[in-house]
């Protein structure tokens, strides 16, 4: 088992499968406006994100990129270099499961123009493959209780709704 996650380089890998042709790569600072716009482009995100105030996102981006256990991914459409998808993958070391690492998928977003093309599936499949490459014992994620379509999507990809999550705003 791997004890420390290996950092992923900035090399791009072509996304495969049906739909739009994309490069799956580490996000760069120039991608932040597109990523934040996708985070804000749904009913939940519209209430908590503010694309007009980029400073907190830049600060968070710097913290994410400085941590080798974090991978903020950008799916770049090859035709025009637009960022049309994103997710964040975090490798978490743990004592449970005999000291196994686990991967946490968060902030999966696909640009509205690309929904239904299979890009979301490709993003999550990439994250699963990366978690395997990093020798994680499992991949986990949470999804807001109101996002029933997202729940069906994750179940189709093999995720099991095995736990109930709790949050405490601070």
Automatic annotation (TrEMBL):
SUPFAM superfamilies hit by this protein: Acyl-CoA N-acyltransferases (Nat)
Q: State a single Pfam family of this protein.
A: Acetyltransf_1
UniProt keyword list: Acyltransferase, Transferase
Cite the N-acetyltransferase domain residue spans from the record.
22-170
Which PROSITE patterns does the annotation name? Answer: GNAT
Ranges for region Disordered: 1-20
A molecular-function term among this protein's GO annotations: acyltransferase activity, transferring groups other than amino-acyl groups
Gene3D superfamilies (alphabetical): 3.40.630.30
Query: What is the name of this protein?
Result: GNAT family N-acetyltransferase
Organism, per UniProt?
Streptomyces alkaliphilus
């Amino acid at each position: 088992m791997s004890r420390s996650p290996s950092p992923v380089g900035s090399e791009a890998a072509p996304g495969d499968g049906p739909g739009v042709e994309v490069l799956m790569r580490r996000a760069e600072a120039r991608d932040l406006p597109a990523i934040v716009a996708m985070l804000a482009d749904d009913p939940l995100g519209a209430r908590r994100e503010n694309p007009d105030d980029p400073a907190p996102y830049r600060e968070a981006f710097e913290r994410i990129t400085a941590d080798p256990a974090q991978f903020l991914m950008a799916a770049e459409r090859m035709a025009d270099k637009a960022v049309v998808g994103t997710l964040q993958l975090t490798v978490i070391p743990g004592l449970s499961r005999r000291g196994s690492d686990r991967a946490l998928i968060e902030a999966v977003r696909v640009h509205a123009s690309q929904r239904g093309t299979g890009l979301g599936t490709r993003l999550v499949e990439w994250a699963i493959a990366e978690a395997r490459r990093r020798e994680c014992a499992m991949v986990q994620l949470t999804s807001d209780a109101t996002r029933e379509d997202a729940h069906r999507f994750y179940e189709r990809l093999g995720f099991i709704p095995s736990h109930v999550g709790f949050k405490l705003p601070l």
